[in-house]
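Researcher: Quick test of sequence recovery. Tokens follow.
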């Protein structure tokens, strides 16, 4: 469940009193993210608005969306790993109603540069776009 994954992230980041520890944890999450299927590493799956290169692909598995992502920058890869962890395996409706307020809760947004914050917004828009597109596809198949 999406809320359980958000709670796990909040608990993970609450272990760190200093932001430096949270950054290291974020980088580690990026390193632990499964390798992205090379079929998704296309120009069409590049997230526009990110200073770093970020790829975000999605597919339907039943009524759930499975996301795969990668980035060429370690902190950005950690950020996209957080988003994939939270939103992957959820239905389009769950994704669309779950705003990324957990990013404020763990203190991430306030520690991002303007360009990374813009990139994060672009990643969230892409996730929402996939959710809307797959929701429409699921409704057409009913």
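Model:
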């Amino acid at each position: 469940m999406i809320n359980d994954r958000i709670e796990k992230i909040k608990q993970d980041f609450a272990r760190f009193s200093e932001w430096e520890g949270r950054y290291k944890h974020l980088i580690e999450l990026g390193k632990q993210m499964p390798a992205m299927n090379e079929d998704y590493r296309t120009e069409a799956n590049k997230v526009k608005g990110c200073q770093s290169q970020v790829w975000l692909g999605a597919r339907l598995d039943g009524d759930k969306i499975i996301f795969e992502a990668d980035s060429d920058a370690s902190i950005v890869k950690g950020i996209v790993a957080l988003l994939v962890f939270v939103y992957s395996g959820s239905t389009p409706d769950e994704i669309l109603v779950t705003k990324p307020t957990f990013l404020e809760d763990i203190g991430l947004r306030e520690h991002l540069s303007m360009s990374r914050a813009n990139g994060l917004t672009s990643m969230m828009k892409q996730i929402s776009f996939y959710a809307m597109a797959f929701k429409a596809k699921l409704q057409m198949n009913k």
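The radius of gyration is 15 Å.
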